[in-house]
Fold this sequence. Notes:
The chain is an alpha/beta fold. It has twelve helices and ten strands. The strands form two sheets. It has an eight-stranded parallel beta barrel with strand order 3-4-5-6-7-8-9-10, surrounded by four helices. Strands 1-2 form a two-stranded antiparallel sheet.
Amino acid sequence: MELRPLGRTGLKIAPLVFGGNVFGWTADEKTSFALLSRFFEAGFNTVDTADVYSSWAPGNSGGESEVIIGKWLKSGAVARDKAIVVTKVGSDLGEGRKGLSQKWIMHAVEDSLKRLQTDYIDLYLSHWPDASVPYEETLAAHTKLKEQGKVRAVGGSNLDATQLQASLDAATANGLQRYDVLQPEYNLYDRGGFEGPLAELCQREDIGVITYFSLASGFLTGKYRTPADTQGKARGEDAGKYLDAKGQRILAALDTVSAEIGAKPAEIALAWLMAKPTVTAPIASATSLSQLESLIKSASLSLTSDQIALLDKAGA
Protein backbone atom coordinates (compact mmCIF):
# COMPACT_ATOMS: atom_id res chain seq x y z
CA MET A 1 0.00 0.00 0.00
CA GLU A 2 1.33 3.41 -1.00
CA LEU A 3 1.76 5.67 2.04
CA ARG A 4 1.62 9.41 1.51
CA PRO A 5 3.29 12.02 3.71
CA LEU A 6 0.63 14.05 5.55
CA GLY A 7 2.04 17.51 5.00
CA ARG A 8 4.82 18.30 7.47
CA THR A 9 3.42 16.18 10.32
CA GLY A 10 5.82 13.27 9.89
CA LEU A 11 2.81 10.97 9.63
CA LYS A 12 2.37 8.77 6.57
CA ILE A 13 -1.12 7.65 5.66
CA ALA A 14 -2.67 5.33 3.09
CA PRO A 15 -4.61 7.14 0.33
CA LEU A 16 -8.01 6.44 1.94
CA VAL A 17 -9.17 7.17 5.51
CA PHE A 18 -12.05 5.31 7.19
CA GLY A 19 -14.80 7.64 8.39
CA GLY A 20 -15.83 6.76 11.93
CA ASN A 21 -19.00 8.88 11.90
CA VAL A 22 -21.03 5.69 11.33
CA PHE A 23 -19.79 3.93 14.48
CA GLY A 24 -22.55 3.85 17.08
CA TRP A 25 -25.02 5.15 14.50
CA THR A 26 -25.57 3.06 11.37
CA ALA A 27 -22.88 0.53 12.38
CA ASP A 28 -23.15 -1.16 15.77
CA GLU A 29 -20.11 -2.19 17.78
CA LYS A 30 -19.76 -5.68 16.30
CA THR A 31 -20.09 -4.38 12.73
CA SER A 32 -17.66 -1.53 13.46
CA PHE A 33 -15.04 -3.96 14.77
CA ALA A 34 -15.36 -6.10 11.61
CA LEU A 35 -15.11 -3.05 9.34
CA LEU A 36 -12.04 -1.64 11.11
CA SER A 37 -10.26 -4.99 11.13
CA ARG A 38 -10.86 -5.56 7.41
CA PHE A 39 -9.81 -2.00 6.55
CA PHE A 40 -6.49 -2.37 8.35
CA GLU A 41 -5.95 -5.91 7.00
CA ALA A 42 -6.21 -4.41 3.50
CA GLY A 43 -3.22 -2.18 4.23
CA PHE A 44 -4.93 1.07 5.22
CA ASN A 45 -3.87 2.71 8.47
CA THR A 46 -6.04 5.73 9.38
CA VAL A 47 -9.45 6.20 11.02
CA ASP A 48 -11.18 9.57 11.45
CA THR A 49 -13.61 10.44 14.22
CA ALA A 50 -14.64 13.34 16.50
CA ASP A 51 -15.77 13.79 20.09
CA VAL A 52 -19.25 14.70 18.84
CA TYR A 53 -19.78 11.47 16.79
CA SER A 54 -22.49 10.22 16.80
CA SER A 55 -24.55 12.54 18.99
CA TRP A 56 -27.23 12.96 16.32
CA ALA A 57 -28.41 9.35 16.63
CA PRO A 58 -31.38 8.77 18.98
CA GLY A 59 -30.19 7.97 22.49
CA ASN A 60 -26.62 9.12 21.85
CA SER A 61 -24.84 12.04 23.51
CA GLY A 62 -21.51 12.08 21.63
CA GLY A 63 -18.34 10.09 22.10
CA GLU A 64 -19.89 6.81 20.92
CA SER A 65 -17.57 6.55 17.91
CA GLU A 66 -14.44 7.16 20.01
CA VAL A 67 -15.57 4.53 22.53
CA ILE A 68 -15.96 1.91 19.81
CA ILE A 69 -12.57 2.74 18.27
CA GLY A 70 -11.01 2.59 21.75
CA LYS A 71 -12.45 -0.85 22.44
CA TRP A 72 -11.26 -2.05 19.04
CA LEU A 73 -7.74 -0.73 19.65
CA LYS A 74 -7.74 -2.36 23.09
CA SER A 75 -8.74 -5.70 21.54
CA GLY A 76 -5.31 -5.86 19.93
CA ALA A 77 -6.69 -6.22 16.40
CA VAL A 78 -3.84 -3.94 15.33
CA ALA A 79 -0.79 -2.65 17.17
CA ARG A 80 -1.37 0.89 18.46
CA ASP A 81 1.66 2.25 16.62
CA LYS A 82 0.28 0.89 13.33
CA ALA A 83 -2.99 2.84 13.61
CA ILE A 84 -3.28 6.56 12.95
CA VAL A 85 -6.23 7.94 14.90
CA VAL A 86 -7.71 11.31 13.96
CA THR A 87 -10.21 13.01 16.25
CA LYS A 88 -11.60 16.51 16.67
CA VAL A 89 -12.58 19.06 19.29
CA GLY A 90 -14.90 22.06 19.24
CA SER A 91 -18.34 20.83 18.21
CA ASP A 92 -21.25 21.48 20.55
CA LEU A 93 -21.69 18.64 23.04
CA GLY A 94 -24.33 20.55 25.01
CA GLU A 95 -24.20 22.25 28.41
CA GLY A 96 -21.58 24.72 27.18
CA ARG A 97 -19.11 22.01 26.21
CA LYS A 98 -17.91 23.40 22.90
CA GLY A 99 -15.49 25.76 21.18
CA LEU A 100 -11.75 26.21 20.96
CA SER A 101 -10.80 27.90 24.25
CA GLN A 102 -7.63 26.57 25.85
CA LYS A 103 -9.61 25.52 28.93
CA TRP A 104 -12.07 23.43 26.92
CA ILE A 105 -9.46 21.86 24.62
CA MET A 106 -7.35 20.75 27.60
CA HIS A 107 -10.45 19.18 29.18
CA ALA A 108 -11.88 17.67 25.98
CA VAL A 109 -8.63 15.97 24.98
CA GLU A 110 -8.60 14.04 28.27
CA ASP A 111 -12.15 12.84 27.59
CA SER A 112 -11.18 11.73 24.08
CA LEU A 113 -8.05 9.94 25.33
CA LYS A 114 -10.15 8.09 27.90
CA ARG A 115 -12.76 7.02 25.37
CA LEU A 116 -10.08 5.98 22.86
CA GLN A 117 -8.21 4.07 25.61
CA THR A 118 -4.88 5.46 24.44
CA ASP A 119 -2.30 7.89 25.80
CA TYR A 120 -1.91 9.86 22.56
CA ILE A 121 -3.90 11.04 19.56
CA ASP A 122 -2.07 10.97 16.23
CA LEU A 123 -3.90 13.94 14.70
CA TYR A 124 -6.05 16.36 16.71
CA LEU A 125 -8.21 18.78 14.71
CA SER A 126 -10.09 21.94 15.61
CA HIS A 127 -13.49 20.90 14.24
CA TRP A 128 -14.99 24.32 13.43
CA PRO A 129 -13.72 27.90 13.49
CA ASP A 130 -14.50 29.67 16.77
CA ALA A 131 -14.63 33.44 16.28
CA SER A 132 -14.91 33.99 20.05
CA VAL A 133 -11.38 32.67 20.69
CA PRO A 134 -8.14 34.14 19.26
CA TYR A 135 -6.13 31.72 17.12
CA GLU A 136 -3.15 32.15 19.43
CA GLU A 137 -5.14 30.81 22.40
CA THR A 138 -6.29 27.73 20.47
CA LEU A 139 -2.84 27.12 19.01
CA ALA A 140 -1.24 27.55 22.45
CA ALA A 141 -3.42 24.69 23.69
CA HIS A 142 -2.46 22.50 20.75
CA THR A 143 1.21 23.39 21.26
CA LYS A 144 0.99 22.37 24.91
CA LEU A 145 -0.66 19.07 24.03
CA LYS A 146 2.03 18.31 21.49
CA GLU A 147 4.77 19.14 23.99
CA GLN A 148 3.08 16.83 26.51
CA GLY A 149 3.03 14.02 23.96
CA LYS A 150 -0.75 13.77 24.06
CA VAL A 151 -1.07 14.62 20.36
CA ARG A 152 1.41 13.99 17.56
CA ALA A 153 0.08 16.49 15.03
CA VAL A 154 -2.60 19.18 14.83
CA GLY A 155 -4.83 20.68 12.20
CA GLY A 156 -8.09 22.44 11.46
CA SER A 157 -11.34 21.58 9.76
CA ASN A 158 -13.84 23.78 7.91
CA LEU A 159 -11.51 26.78 7.58
CA ASP A 160 -11.60 29.00 4.50
CA ALA A 161 -8.43 30.46 2.98
CA THR A 162 -8.63 33.68 5.01
CA GLN A 163 -9.11 31.82 8.29
CA LEU A 164 -6.34 29.31 7.58
CA GLN A 165 -3.93 32.11 6.65
CA ALA A 166 -4.85 34.00 9.84
CA SER A 167 -4.11 30.87 11.89
CA LEU A 168 -0.73 30.45 10.16
CA ASP A 169 0.12 34.10 10.80
CA ALA A 170 -0.82 33.74 14.48
CA ALA A 171 1.37 30.65 14.81
CA THR A 172 4.36 32.41 13.24
CA ALA A 173 3.93 35.61 15.26
CA ASN A 174 3.67 33.76 18.57
CA GLY A 175 6.08 30.87 18.00
CA LEU A 176 3.26 28.32 18.26
CA GLN A 177 2.42 25.03 16.60
CA ARG A 178 0.58 25.74 13.35
CA TYR A 179 -2.19 23.76 11.68
CA ASP A 180 -0.32 21.22 9.54
CA VAL A 181 -3.47 19.50 8.24
CA LEU A 182 -6.78 20.72 6.85
CA GLN A 183 -10.00 18.73 6.67
CA PRO A 184 -12.31 20.46 4.16
CA GLU A 185 -15.57 19.37 2.56
CA TYR A 186 -14.59 18.38 -0.98
CA ASN A 187 -15.99 16.01 -3.58
CA LEU A 188 -16.93 15.88 -7.26
CA TYR A 189 -19.99 18.04 -6.60
CA ASP A 190 -18.88 20.35 -3.75
CA ARG A 191 -15.74 21.96 -5.12
CA GLY A 192 -15.99 25.72 -4.72
CA GLY A 193 -15.11 25.76 -1.03
CA PHE A 194 -11.73 24.10 -1.52
CA GLU A 195 -10.56 24.65 -5.09
CA GLY A 196 -8.82 27.96 -5.70
CA PRO A 197 -7.23 30.02 -2.91
CA LEU A 198 -7.64 27.40 -0.16
CA ALA A 199 -6.15 24.53 -2.16
CA GLU A 200 -3.36 26.80 -3.37
CA LEU A 201 -2.56 27.85 0.21
CA CYS A 202 -2.42 24.22 1.35
CA GLN A 203 -0.10 23.33 -1.51
CA ARG A 204 2.12 26.35 -0.93
CA GLU A 205 2.43 25.73 2.82
CA ASP A 206 2.73 21.92 2.55
CA ILE A 207 -0.47 21.34 4.53
CA GLY A 208 -1.86 17.81 4.42
CA VAL A 209 -5.46 17.57 3.19
CA ILE A 210 -7.98 14.93 4.26
CA THR A 211 -11.38 15.52 2.63
CA TYR A 212 -14.75 14.80 4.23
CA PHE A 213 -18.14 14.19 2.58
CA SER A 214 -15.96 12.67 -0.15
CA LEU A 215 -19.00 10.83 -1.54
CA ALA A 216 -21.44 13.74 -1.03
CA SER A 217 -23.52 11.98 1.66
CA GLY A 218 -23.70 8.87 -0.52
CA PHE A 219 -24.92 10.67 -3.64
CA LEU A 220 -21.76 9.76 -5.57
CA THR A 221 -22.40 6.05 -5.00
CA GLY A 222 -25.05 6.38 -7.72
CA LYS A 223 -27.79 4.86 -5.56
CA TYR A 224 -29.74 8.14 -5.32
CA ARG A 225 -30.94 9.10 -8.79
CA THR A 226 -34.53 10.23 -8.14
CA PRO A 227 -36.29 11.75 -5.10
CA ALA A 228 -37.94 8.37 -4.51
CA ASP A 229 -34.50 6.78 -3.97
CA THR A 230 -33.89 9.02 -0.94
CA GLN A 231 -37.06 8.11 0.95
CA GLY A 232 -36.55 6.37 4.27
CA LYS A 233 -32.74 6.28 4.00
CA ALA A 234 -30.50 7.41 6.87
CA ARG A 235 -28.64 9.85 4.61
CA GLY A 236 -31.33 10.23 1.98
CA GLU A 237 -32.31 13.75 2.98
CA ASP A 238 -28.69 14.92 2.69
CA ALA A 239 -28.21 13.20 -0.67
CA GLY A 240 -31.45 14.64 -2.07
CA LYS A 241 -30.00 18.15 -2.42
CA TYR A 242 -27.66 16.88 -5.16
CA LEU A 243 -30.50 15.80 -7.46
CA ASP A 244 -30.21 18.76 -9.82
CA ALA A 245 -28.82 19.23 -13.34
CA LYS A 246 -25.23 19.36 -12.10
CA GLY A 247 -25.73 16.20 -10.06
CA GLN A 248 -27.17 14.38 -13.06
CA ARG A 249 -24.19 15.48 -15.20
CA ILE A 250 -21.82 14.07 -12.61
CA LEU A 251 -23.72 10.76 -12.42
CA ALA A 252 -23.62 10.50 -16.22
CA ALA A 253 -19.85 11.08 -16.23
CA LEU A 254 -19.40 8.50 -13.47
CA ASP A 255 -21.50 6.02 -15.46
CA THR A 256 -19.33 6.61 -18.54
CA VAL A 257 -16.08 5.98 -16.66
CA SER A 258 -17.68 3.05 -14.84
CA ALA A 259 -18.45 1.38 -18.15
CA GLU A 260 -14.90 1.98 -19.37
CA ILE A 261 -13.04 0.53 -16.40
CA GLY A 262 -15.55 -1.76 -14.73
CA ALA A 263 -15.67 0.06 -11.41
CA LYS A 264 -18.54 1.43 -9.32
CA PRO A 265 -19.35 5.17 -9.23
CA ALA A 266 -18.23 5.49 -5.59
CA GLU A 267 -14.87 3.91 -6.42
CA ILE A 268 -14.36 6.32 -9.32
CA ALA A 269 -15.39 9.36 -7.23
CA LEU A 270 -12.82 8.43 -4.59
CA ALA A 271 -10.13 7.67 -7.18
CA TRP A 272 -10.76 11.16 -8.65
CA LEU A 273 -10.03 12.69 -5.23
CA MET A 274 -6.94 10.53 -4.71
CA ALA A 275 -5.59 11.72 -8.07
CA LYS A 276 -5.81 15.39 -7.04
CA PRO A 277 -2.31 16.73 -6.22
CA THR A 278 -3.75 18.87 -3.41
CA VAL A 279 -5.43 15.93 -1.63
CA THR A 280 -3.54 13.55 0.65
CA ALA A 281 -6.50 11.22 1.18
CA PRO A 282 -10.30 11.31 1.14
CA ILE A 283 -12.39 10.04 4.05
CA ALA A 284 -15.14 7.54 3.28
CA SER A 285 -17.30 5.36 5.49
CA ALA A 286 -19.03 2.02 5.06
CA THR A 287 -21.64 0.18 7.09
CA SER A 288 -21.17 -3.29 5.59
CA LEU A 289 -18.24 -5.40 4.48
CA SER A 290 -19.50 -5.37 0.88
CA GLN A 291 -19.48 -1.55 0.88
CA LEU A 292 -16.01 -1.62 2.42
CA GLU A 293 -14.63 -3.91 -0.30
CA SER A 294 -15.71 -1.29 -2.82
CA LEU A 295 -13.86 1.43 -0.90
CA ILE A 296 -10.77 -0.76 -0.76
CA LYS A 297 -10.90 -1.24 -4.53
CA SER A 298 -10.93 2.52 -5.11
CA ALA A 299 -7.34 2.85 -3.91
CA SER A 300 -6.10 0.59 -6.69
CA LEU A 301 -7.89 2.40 -9.52
CA SER A 302 -5.93 4.51 -11.95
CA LEU A 303 -7.93 7.05 -13.96
CA THR A 304 -6.66 8.34 -17.30
CA SER A 305 -6.20 12.05 -17.90
CA ASP A 306 -9.21 11.96 -20.23
CA GLN A 307 -11.39 10.37 -17.56
CA ILE A 308 -10.29 12.91 -14.97
CA ALA A 309 -11.00 15.73 -17.42
CA LEU A 310 -14.49 14.32 -18.09
CA LEU A 311 -15.25 14.24 -14.36
CA ASP A 312 -13.74 17.68 -13.82
CA LYS A 313 -15.96 19.17 -16.51
CA ALA A 314 -19.14 17.47 -15.23
CA GLY A 315 -18.74 18.89 -11.75
CA ALA A 316 -17.33 22.29 -12.70
